[in-house]
Amino acid sequence: MAPVAARPRFFANYLRTSLLMAALIALLVLGGRAVGGAQGMLLFGGLGLAMNFAMYWFSDRLALLAHRARPISQAEAPSLYAIVERLTRRAGMPMPRIYLIPSDAANAFATGRNPQHAAVAVTEGILQILNERQLEGVLAHELSHVKNRDILVGTIAAAIAGLISSIGYLLRFGLMFAGAGRDSEGRRGGGLAALAWIIIAPLIAFMLQLAISRSREYGADASGAALEGDPEGLASALETLEAAQQVRPYEYAGPATAHLFIVNPLRGGAAAIMNLLSTHPPLKERIRRLRALRV
């Protein structure tokens, strides 16, 4: 297969994300029509948006706290700082805060609502097993998540999915108190339509949300490879990290923050479930796409 350029792949991933977001919004519009009353929708929707706004605003602090991350100084990790400084200059980004996670497992994540409030966290293990080329690929990927506003995109997707779920709850209560035989306009069969919405629509919204997340992973791979100028650096890092995770699992792993990491930190039964409902695309496919890029 002939190599393909990173930039067209990058824009293709964003187009896919836009289409998935449009599908979520369309589902929300259909839900608004199903629920009928605008006031209840606005109330539950406002609560959902407020909750997601709070998570967006404080998610970086919560994620760093959950993983015992501590700030690390330039004197403690001069090579790490040199790589991040080089990449941020190239990307035109401000220098993020850098944190160290006290774990021998090899992994990393970035968080922050925008480049001015970004943080990059790496484990002690990743600094031990990756060479400088591979580490630069990982950090380029994570910084691309921040530069591409992927956290904002994910928060908006979660907010819309939450609104759709809220509509399902409204319809459930409506069926309980109004009876299942007619809809809000008195037509027969409305209860069956509402029941279908309660069961199916939130599931579709959840799957679209996961698809958006996977699309953003491909986007960060492509833009990270372009930022580093070396797709093989990230590709070989992903191979090394996946092998290392089999040997030394990450002890602080949890489903709530697994999506943040460069590779899935979950193992065992939790990992099997996450592979079915994963926020990350398969590693083999990520590596294949990276090795097909030219930058």
Give the helices and strands as they follow along the chain.
Answer: EHHEHEEEHHHHHHHE
Strand order, largest beta sheet: 2-3-5-4
Tally of helical segments: 10
- Low-confidence stretches are 1-5, 180-189, 269-274
Number of strands: 6
Content-based structural category: alpha/beta
Based on Cα principal axes, name the global outline: globular
- In percent terms, what proportion of residues is strand? 5-15%
Integer tally of domains? 1
Compose a concise summary of this entry:
By secondary structure, this protein is an alpha/beta fold. It contains 10 helices and 6 strands, in the order E-H-H-E-H-E-E-E-H-H-H-H-H-H-H-E. Helices cover 67% and strands 7% of the residues.
Topology:
Layout: E1 4-5, H1 6-35, H2 38-66, E2 70-71, H3 78-91, E3 97-101, E4 108-111, E5 119-123, H4 124-129, H5 132-147, H6 150-178, H7 190-228, H8 231-247, H9 269-276, H10 283-291, E6 293-294
Parallel strand pairs: 1-6, 3-5
Antiparallel strand pairs: 2-3, 4-5
Helix pairs in contact: 1-6, 1-7, 2-6, 3-5, 5-7, 5-8, 6-7, 7-8, 8-10
